[in-house]
Specification:
CATH class of the domain at 88-240: Alpha Beta
Strand content: 5-15%
CATH superfamily of the domain at 88-240: HUPs
Largest sheet: 3 strands, antiparallel
Oligomer: single chain
Number of strands: 11
Structural class: mainly alpha
Radius of gyration: 32 Å
Distance between the termini: 84 Å
CATH topology of the domain at 88-240: Rossmann fold
Helix content: 40-55%
Number of helices: 22
């Protein structure tokens, strides 16, 4: 048995979406589990749609996602080049071989002729397929017409009555040859078709397993016919189920975020997305474990545990996993990942220093339980950056507060003492509140609720034990939006409330 070799072969004609990302993930997990090789191949024969910037974005997305490869366009390898646009001479050689063998032929049909055939088949209730009319042209005549400059595609002769393979996901699969027709191998402009280039490359790159989406099942008979024509052994096929949206239609942009870039911009951690996508159509051996890191996924991954039933994308489940991984993330890494979101909101400067990063760690510790995405941190951190006593006092809840004799009594006892502190520690805060409790007789909510509202400008939020040091430290840091210290907040409140 040859060493396992798999490939992820995207077309750089758009952004990497979750369906392709899951395919890349399953190939990577299988290669790593089996100790084999994972290959990245760029299928860019569609010159009109393929763009270098999409390839660059694709590679960035895969690296962010935590997928690496052993051979590829950026790394080279024993079967280079790994861009199909750089392999045209190889395809030309193999095209010539098939024509010489009599397994392929030139097709001179125009687009209008092919469309007429298609419409005729549909009207008759038949599956559209090429009639094979150019099969009858003698090889010498076809070669002469081609040499004379007449446009011609190259088609494969389908001779099989049916195609059978044992799919690693769908099991024994059989498709009638009657619905296949003679597929185009090379278009009239000289560009190789997907099925032809993929088969040639998979064979030459010694791919042992082709793991891809089940939208490719219809391509498999054409590829098997090519393996037969060349006399090559076909790899094993595993076709992954479709990913559906909540309405059980194929996942698309109308369901929300689907590209890797959009998930990164939302603040999904790569390990959370990797864990979640692994569970879409696959399950671990015990059938119930839901949190698995990369090492655990590699250890447990098996093609035998992939289901052929469509998987439904559940955003709530992804967010739940993201919350878990944010809590497990090392504080400094989480702070660094959060910086771009805080920077976009104008709350921190570019490239913050160690003191600011340490302070962001404190902020995250205070607000993390209230967020599912890193993009939600700036909103959750509003209690740190936004303090406007006048605006707060205009709300009914604050109006009720300052008209309450009990609340006023607590605040008039608390504020002067707290303001007198140059820097208020939480320990000193506790001492002051104990003294206020003793002098006013108020305790519990009657004591702490007015103090919270005066300090934070909100009726609820993170624990004061965490917020007080955040306020005091933040007021001393070089931040675009000044964080007010405890004393600054209380003075503003005192003046606005007219105490």
């Amino acid at each position: 048995m040859p060493k396992v070799r798999v490939r992820f072969a995207p077309s750089p004609s758009g952004y990497l979406h979750v369906g392709n990302a899951r395919t890349a993930l399953f190939n990577w997990l299988f290669a790593r589990h089996e100790g084999g090789a994972n290959i990245l191949r760029i299928e860019d024969t569609d010159a009109e749609r393929s763009k270098p910037e999409y390839e660059r974005q694709l590679i960035r997305d895969l690296r962010w996602f935590g997928i690496d490869w052993d051979e590829g366009p950026d790394k080279g390898g024993p079967f280079a080049p790994y861009r199909q646009s750089e392999r045209r001479e190889i395809y030309q050689q193999h095209t010539a071989k098939l024509i010489e063998q009599g397994d392929a032929y030139y097709c001179f049909c125009t687009a209008a002729q092919l469309e007429a055939e298609r419409e005729e088949a549909l009207k008759a209730g038949r599956q559209p397929r090429y009639s094979g009319r150019c099969r009858k042209i003698p090889a010498e005549e076809a070669a002469r017409r081609k040499s004379a400059g007449e446009p011609a595609a190259v088609r494969l002769k389908i001779v099989e009555s049916s195609f059978f393979w044992n799919d690693r996901v769908h099991g024994p699969t059989n498709i009638s040859g009657e619905i296949v027709g003679d597929p185009i191998l090379v278009r009239s402009e000289g560009l190789p078709a997907y099925n032809f280039a993929a088969v040639v490359d998979d064979h030459l790159m010694e791919i042992t397993h082709v793991i891809r989406g089940d939208d490719h099942i219809s391509n498999t008979p054409r590829q098997l016919a090519l393996y037969r024509a060349f006399g090559w052994q076909a790899p094993e096929f595993a076709h992954l189920s479709t990913i559906l949206g909540p309405d059980r239609t194929r996942l698309s942009k109308r369901h929300g975020a689907t590209s890797m870039e959009s998930f990164r911009e939302m603040g999904i951690l790569p390990e959370a997305l990797r864990n979640y996508l692994a569970l879409l159509g696959w399950s671990p051996s015990d059938g119930k474990t839901e949190i698995l890191n990369a090492e655990e996924l590699i250890k447990q991954f098996s093609l035998d545990h992939i289901t052929k039933s469509p998987a439904v994308f559940d955003t709530d489940k992804l967010n739940w996993l993201n919350r878990h991984y944010m809590k497990e993330c090392p504080p400094r890494r989480l702070a660094e990942l959060t910086v771009p979101f805080l920077q976009a909101a104008g709350l921190v400067n570019p490239a913050p220093g160690p003191e600011v990063l340490a302070w962001i760690e404190r902020v995250l510790d205070a607000v993390l339980k209230n967020v599912s995405l890193l993009s939600e941190v700036p909103g959750a951190a509003r209690v740190v950056f936004d303090y406007d006593a006048q605006q707060a006092l205009a709300t009914p809840e604050f109006q009720e507060l300052i008209t309450s004799q009990a609340a006023r009594e607590v605040l008039m006892a608390f504020i002067p003492t707290a303001i007198a502190e140059s820097t208020l520690t939480y320990e000193r805060f506790r001492e002051i509140t104990k003294a206020v409790q003793k002098s006013t007789g108020k305790k519990g909510k009657d004591l702490f609720h007015p103090i919270r509202m005066a300090l934070t400008g909100a009726a609820s939020g993170p624990e004061l034990e965490k917020l007080i040091p955040i306020y005091e430290e933040g007021a001393k840091l070089p931040l675009p939006k000044h964080v007010k210290s405890v004393a600054e907040r209380l003075r503003e409140f005192e003046a606005a409330a007219g105490f």
